[in-house]
């Protein structure tokens, strides 16, 4: 990433690319039917990637940003694996090629956070759909736990049991992160450099509340057994500028 532009957020300069030097995360990946998932994301112009015919992937993730250019904060993401916007109309074989070749994208569908500055930066710089929420998380115990609520209404609780260590950097990748607010779809290059990754089949326990985000997840058939779950002890990330798709 070579962008050196500067954005002003709430009176403070934010120079690109934005770096996250220390974070921890845990997540569950769930199989969801393509048709209702596609209906949820139709306004973006993007297409749900099918890891098997008729089924896509929804990831629920809690992140604790410890040290980064936007300061410390908590985040909960509802993300869908999507086809790269250059690959619209691909079939299942193209989707498999994208998965194997690391060409799939991640649509950030919901992104509650607990900080005003990161909310303003996320929406203003990248168009990420950040909203304010309250968090109760445990990233330190062997079983990771997180709860997120908004306006006093529970969105979701997620617990991730210990997995097996993944050698090396495990999930190191450069991804296309998509966002959509105010009728505009954007794409951001998102580099991840994780260490201390543990993963397993299943291993996630999900409870949904009564918030509208929970109702959306329930419309996809959640909660159900996760395909896989993972935790990341040390996560570094870099975010470049967004481009309009």
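-> sequence recovered:
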């Amino acid at each position: 990433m070579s962008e050196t532009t500067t954005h002003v957020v709430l009176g403070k300069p934010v120079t690109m690319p934005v770096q996250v030097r220390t974070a921890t995360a845990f997540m569950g990946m769930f199989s969801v039917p393509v048709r209702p998932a596609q209906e949820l994301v139709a306004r973006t112009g993007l297409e749900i990637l099918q890891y098997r015919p008729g089924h896509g992937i929804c990831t629920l993730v809690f992140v604790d940003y410890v040290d980064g250019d936007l300061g410390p904060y908590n985040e909960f993401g509802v993300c869908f694996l999507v086809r790269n916007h250059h690959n619209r109309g691909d079939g299942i074989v193209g989707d498999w090629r994208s998965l194997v070749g690391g060409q799939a994208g991640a649509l950030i569908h919901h992104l509650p956070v607990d900080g005003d500055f990161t909310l303003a930066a996320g929406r203003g710089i990248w168009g990420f759909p950040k909203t304010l929420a309250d968090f109760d998380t445990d990233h330190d115990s062997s079983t990771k736990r997180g709860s997120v609520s908004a306006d006093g209404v529970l969105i979701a609780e997620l617990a991730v049991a210990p997995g097996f260590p993944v050698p090396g950097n495990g999930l190191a990748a450069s991804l296309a992160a998509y966002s959509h607010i105010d009728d505009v779809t954007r794409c951001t290059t998102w580099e991840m450099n994780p260490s201390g990754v543990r993963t397993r089949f299943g291993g996630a326990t999900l409870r949904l509340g009564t918030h509208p985000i929970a109702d959306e997840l329930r419309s996809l058939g959640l909660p159900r057994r996760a395909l896989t779950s993972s935790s990341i002890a040390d996560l570094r990330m870099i975010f470049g500028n967004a481009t309009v798709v």
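The longest strand covers residues 184-201.
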